[in-house]
Specification:
Number of domains: 3
Distance between the termini: 20 Å
Shape: globular
CATH topology of the largest domain: Nucleotidyltransferase, domain 5
CATH architecture of the largest domain: 2-Layer Sandwich
CATH class of the largest domain: Alpha Beta
Number of strands: 15
CATH superfamily of the largest domain: ATPase, nucleotide binding domain
Strand content: 15-25%
Strand order of the largest sheet: 6-5-4-7-8
Largest sheet: 5 strands, mixed
């Protein structure tokens, strides 16, 4: 691939990131309101906004009239101020997305396969990046902040669920795919667990969750999750916090199992196969035309496992909200959330704080969009020193 380089203007100063975060959360906001929300002086805010505007990270909106005093000039995020790439490596497919500074997907490439072969996926990544570069406006390609790469943690340990030859999974035991991408791209590369990255996307792009603590589940081939505490993603000591799939719960027969064996898409596929359906089904957000009994059984079992995991998690941290997203049609997501909430209420939760169950706002692309958010978080997030420990090595 041709080396393109990057001259993206990262934001290093805390106050600069604070102002940028306030503007992102507000949609559009005048400088006087930024000063009120941040506690910074009007002079300091004016200087910061001027610098952000010069670097094309924010833009001016129309004057707001009709208020007492002089009309105010609101500022908003410039969607063309920065771009980012995200690669999701999964059991049946890989996705490469290109997002703008507001998180809008402006290009996507998909590779489907029977097994995740490392060499093929690396080549797909390089080819798709080359293709997606052409969708960026001329002269803006050097504003691409980097590439985020996400996949299930230690996938070689999940042979039973992957139903993949050992040789294919063992290829991923080291990080040579990250090393190779770094060597072939003139871009910083940021690796992360896929469900944690999906949680990061919800945190970054869902402005309704500002300032809260919540537990996040993403139901994919594997179920996984993430933890947000006081509006900060908590990655844990080894970037493995929120490994909810490994939590021990009981199935409907009272057998103790890890949640991943009960509430993942792989568990649903086992039911589909057991009922004589094709194993070649592509798990997307549409086209789930299965027998109602199969779906109802899986929803009930899956929700029972998730409800137990929620109760266990809430005994450690009293989460205000529990968010559930995944690779499935929106009506099915709503059904699962309703069933989880119902079964949670049926559990003995004496001593636990109340919590609210909500549907995630990103959907099936949460992992790839979350991957693309990683470079933006590193370059522009308010909490850049805490959010993802260790990603500085990518720069």
């Amino acid at each position: 691939m041709t080396s393109r380089g990057t001259n993206i203007v990262g934001v290093r100063a805390y106050n600069d990131r604070l102002v940028l975060t306030i503007i992102r959360e507000s949609g559009k906001i005048p400088k006087i309101e930024i000063a009120r929300k941040t506690g910074l002086s009007a002079t300091a805010v004016s200087a910061i906004v001027k610098k952000l505007e010069k670097n094309k990270l924010v833009k001016r909106e129309k004057l707001e009239r009709g208020r007492v005093g002089q009309p105010s000039m609101p500022f908003s995020i410039n969607p063309k101020g920065a771009y980012s790439l995200g690669l999701k490596i999964g059991r049946r497919s890989s996705e490469m997305v290109l997002i703008d500074f507001l998180g809008k997907v402006i290009g996507i490439e998909v590779l489907e396969y029977p097994h995740p072969e490392k060499s093929s996926i690396i080549q797909f990544a390089l080819d798709s990046i080359q293709s997606l570069y052409s969708t960026v406006p001329k002269g803006h390609q050097k504003r691409i902040a980097g590439l985020g790469v996400v996949m299930p943690n230690e996938i070689w340990k999940w042979k039973k669920l992957f139903r993949t030859p050992d040789t294919k999974l063992m290829e991923w035991r080291d990080d040579t795919h990250i090393t190779e991408l770094k060597e072939k791209l003139d871009l910083p590369v940021f690796p992360m667990n896929d469900a944690t990255a999906a949680c990061g996307a919800e945190l970054t792009l869902n402005n309704k969750l500002t300032g809260e603590s919540y537990l996040y589940f993403f139901i994919g081939w594997f179920i996984g999750g993430g933890i947000v505490i006081d509006n900060k993603l908590y990655p844990g000591r080894l970037n493995n916090s929120g490994a909810l799939g490994s939590m021990l719960v009981n199935d409907l027969n009272g057998n103790s199992k890890q949640l991943i064996y009960i509430s993942s898409i792989s568990a649903l596929e086992e039911k589909v196969l057991a009922n004589g359906k094709s194993a070649q089904f592509k798990w997307h957000e549409t086209g789930w035309d299965f027998d109602d009994q199969i779906m109802d059984e899986w929803v009930k079992e899956s929700a029972y496992g998730i409800a137990q995991a929620c109760a266990c998690a809430n005994s450690v941290i009293d989460f205000e909200k529990i968010i559930i997203d995944g690779v499935m049609p929106a009506p099915l997501r709503k059904k699962i959330i309703y069933e989880v909430s119902k079964q949670y209420r049926d559990l003995d939760t004496t001593g636990l704080s109340e919590t609210v169950f909500l549907q995630g706002q990103i959907g099936s692309q949460a992992r790839s969009i979350g991957a693309a958010c990683l470079p933006l978080i590193s370059s522009f997030s308010l909490d850049y020193g805490v959010l993802f420990k260790g990603i500085a090595d990518a720069e």
